[in-house]
Design goal:
Keywords: Cell membrane, Cytoplasmic vesicle, Disulfide bond, Glycoprotein, Golgi apparatus, Lipid transport, Membrane, Transmembrane, Transmembrane helix, Transport. The protein is built from eight helices and eleven strands. The chain is an alpha+beta fold. The protein is globular and about 80 Å long.
């Protein structure tokens, strides 16, 4: 496994842990060939050290590589009406969801390939102090876009708030270990409005991507959010990636007033801006050198 730690511009700190387990020395190597329905799930623990403290709020991401969420058929494989709580679409999903539209003659909720492939590893973080492990509080709410949580995703409507009854007549996605109405014990984070599910349903543009998993809030201004020292990451390894040569990683990152540490957009903007500036200078030169020629068709005397 790989552990990387660095400090970016604007005092942004970041740490990356690859826990795919392809290396024989990795604690997660035993879980490499895990299947979707492994019972009980394979678990592994990776110990690491923070050389520098993380002062501000910390964002915890999971990252995947070689996973093409931008494939045309994959992106279309969903039913937005169903996800918005439409009762008719719940029992009669869109044909775009095929082949994950029905299972055993029951409509799948949520249907489609995107939902069926939802990331389901469980990550827990602990601080180690004198051989004592103290759990780090990970906040699972507030990780999704407000418009997704409050506008695009809705649970079905009906008498009462019993999601088990509201989803009656449907079945879970093929690769899911439990139905959608059992994603969380809290009513405002269960069913189609579960924030882990909402985050996954916003597809990535590139085959290597990361998605927000949890938040670690700073408790006071006198202590850093994560102190320098020893930590351990407990992983319930449920998500298979070895079959398509994918990789999995956990990322811890802070942000500054300029945003997070992601150089792609900065490099892209600088490159495109430089090209535009160069072309502007070239065209200005051509205009001044050749643009004042006499274009009159009159033949001089």
């Amino acid at each position: 496994f790989l552990v990387g730690l660095g400090q970016g511009w604007g005092c942004v700190r970041g740490l990356l842990i690859d826990y795919t387990g392809t290396e024989p020395s990795s604690p997660c190597n035993k879980c490499l060939n895990v299947s979707w329905d492994s019972t009980p799930p394979c678990t592994c623990t990776i110990n690491f050290t923070l050389e520098h403290a993380f002062e501000s709020n910390v964002f915890m991401y999971y990252g995947l590589s070689n996973f093409y969420q931008n494939h045309r058929r994959y992106v279309k494989s969903r039913d937005d009406s169903q996800l918005n709580g439409d009762n008719s679409s719940l029992l009669n999903p869109s044909k775009e969801c095929e082949p994950y539209r029905t299972n055993e003659d029951k409509p799948i909720a949520p249907c489609g390939a995107i939902a069926n492939s939802m990331f389901n590893d469980t990550l827990e973080l602990y601080r180690i102090d004198n051989d004592t492990r103290t759990p780090i509080t990970l906040i699972k709410k507030g990780i999704a876009w407000w418009t997704d949580k409050n506008v695009k995703f809705r649970n079905p409507t009906g008498d009462g708030n019993n999601l088990t009854a509201l989803f009656q007549g449907t079945t879970k996605p093929v690769n899911w270990p439990k139905p959608v109405y059992m994603l969380d014990s809290e009513p405002d984070n269960n069913g189609f409005i579960n924030e882990d599910f909402i985050v996954w349903m916003r597809t990535a543009a590139l085959p290597t991507f990361r998605k927000l998993y949890r938040l670690i809030e700073r408790k006071n201004n006198f202590q850093p959010t994560l102190q320098a020292g020893k930590y351990s990451l407990d992983i319930a390894y449920n998500y298979p990636v070895h079959s398509f040569d994918g990789r999995k990683r956990m990322i811890l990152s802070t942000i500054s007033w300029m945003g997070g540490k992601n150089p792609f957009l900065g490099i892209a903007y600088i490159t495109v801006g430089s090209i535009c500036f160069f072309l502007g200078v070239v065209l200005l030169f051509i205009h001044h050198k050749y643009g004042n020629r006499n274009t009159s068709a009159d033949i001089p005397n």
